[in-house]
Specification:
- By secondary structure, the protein is an all-alpha fold.
- Helices cover about 75% and strands about 0% of the residues.
- It is flat, with a radius of gyration of 20 Å.
- The two termini are about 35 Å apart.
């Protein structure tokens, strides 16, 4: 294929992802209240089911961001498929079966990371932070900061859980193998714990372990 043909193909795949993204985002807009309640649930009773706003348009833009966030998350399988379909010819013929396995694995791991972060780690971190020394601090939590915090945190978990899929592709390309990963296991443990400490929502060791253990499990699974 010529350079122009590659650019045409890239444009076509970007358009497909964009159409899927906006279609899902529009659907998510009609469920914005449920999405809002869903993200607020890990905070428990600390926020009483409400968030503060500091601007006239903040609540509108917050709902729009929530719809776009859900659109992005649910479009991940389409995005992964289009990316792989674009780069696959450059790395050789992997086969249709491998493509489907890869897309299914990567999408499932990403969603599994979000689910794990939402049900296991986020409630612990948010409730610890929101209930920190209430005698000295009065909560005024805005929608902008809380929802930004939760959505980015869940995305971080989704990305962390992609490690086995990335390793699977690298192994197929003969860039890594099991002995190589075993050789650098000690280094991986240190790096994973540092990343866990940086990504967890609270500074306590318990939350760090809640994220560090899955990261190490993903490395071992890889």
């Amino acid at each position: 294929m010529t350079l122009i043909e590659h650019l045409d193909e890239l444009r076509s795949r970007i358009i497909k992802v964009g159409v899927a993204f906006f279609a899902v985002s529009i659907i998510a807009w009609f469920f914005r209240e449920r999405i809002f309640d869903f993200l607020l649930a890990p905070a428990g009773d600390a926020l009483s089911g409400r968030l503060s706003v500091t601007g006239v348009t903040e609540q509108l833009f917050t709902d729009m961001k929530l719809a776009l966030y859900v659109g992005f998350v649910l479009t991940i399988p389409v995005l992964l498929y289009q990316i792989w379909a674009f780069v696959a010819p450059a790395v050789g013929d992997m086969g249709r079966t491998f493509t489907y396995v890869l897309i299914t694995l990567a999408s499932s791991l990403f969603l599994a990371g979000i689910v794990f972060g939402y049900y296991v780690v986020l409630p612990v971190g948010t409730q610890l932070l929101l209930n920190w020394d209430p005698d000295r601090y009065s909560l005024v939590i805005t929608s902008q900061f809380y929802l930004q915090f939760t959505t980015r945190f869940l995305l971080a978990f989704g990305i962390v859980f992609e490690l086995p899929a990335a390793t699977y592709v690298a192994a197929k390309l003969e860039l890594v193998d099991a002995p190589l990963l075993k050789r650098y296991r000690k280094h991986a443990i240190i790096v994973n714990l540092i990343l866990a400490a940086a990504l967890t929502p609270s500074p306590d060791p318990f939350s760090m372990l809640l994220m560090g253990v899955p990261m190490l499990a993903m490395y071992e699974l890889s």
